Amino acid sequence: MTPKDQLPMALRAAYLGLHRRSEACFAQHGVTADQLVLLATLSHGEALTQRELAQRMPSDPNTVRAMLVLLEEQGLVEREAHPTDARARMVALSPAGKRMFRKLHRAGEPIRVRMLEALGPRNTALLVKLLGRVAESLAPAAVAESLKSAPRTSTKRSKSNSSP
């Protein structure tokens, strides 16, 4: 098999490994790995429309809506009417959601450390860059644009703002 043939399965294996470890880690806190992605996306502080949130995650808008309903019931997110668009809803982390995200970020640190140790800082930075290019090459234009505008994350262990 060529690297071209191995790439999709290697990406899938890495994703599934990360997802399974993350699910096990975050289940202790009553949150799924996908819900953490939503919280992490909102953790940058700005309120987003549900559509913007789905694009930045990136995820299906119906899936995002279902997660928002559950997270709102838990008091972790707040949704309100958009100030100028009656069809849109704005979403932000509640104070409890901000605390929960910080707790989950700390809980996920061993996963990020394990990945960093497997690659080293330079290879980790390179992999993040390469994965961004892969995602951009496969994504619709709107998602690719959101990936470009997403805040860059540090590979430093103690100050990482990325989700596991």
Uncertain parts: 153-164
Neighbour order of strands in the largest sheet: 1-3-2
Could you name the CATH homologous superfamily? Winged helix-like DNA-binding domain superfamily/Winged helix DNA-binding domain
User: At CATH's second level, what is the architecture?
Assistant: Orthogonal Bundle
Main beta sheet:
3 strands, antiparallel
Total domains: 1
Mean pLDDT across the residues is 87
Structural class: mainly alpha
Count of DSSP E strands? 3
Helix content: 55-70%
**N-to-C series of helices and strands:** HHEHHEEHHHH
Q: Termini, distance in Å?
A: 30 Å
GO biological process, one term: response to stress
Protein name: Transcriptional regulator, MarR family
InterPro entries: HTH_MarR-typ, MarR/SlyA-like, WH-like_DNA-bd_sf, WH_DNA-bd_sf
GO molecular function, one term: DNA-binding transcription factor activity
Structure in words:
The protein has one domain (22-149): Winged helix-like DNA-binding domain superfamily/Winged helix DNA-binding domain (Arc Repressor Mutant, subunit A, Orthogonal Bundle), CATH 1.10.10.10. The chain has helices at 3-27, 33-42, 50-56, 61-73, 95-107, 109-119, 121-138, 141-149, and strands at residues 48-49, 77-81, 89-93. The protein is mainly α and 164 residues long. It is globular, with a radius of gyration of 16 Å. The protein has eight helices and three strands; from the N terminus they run ααβααββαααα. The longest helix has 25 residues, at 3-27. The two termini are 30 Å apart. The model is unreliable at 153-164 (pLDDT under 50). Residues 142-164 are annotated as: Disordered.
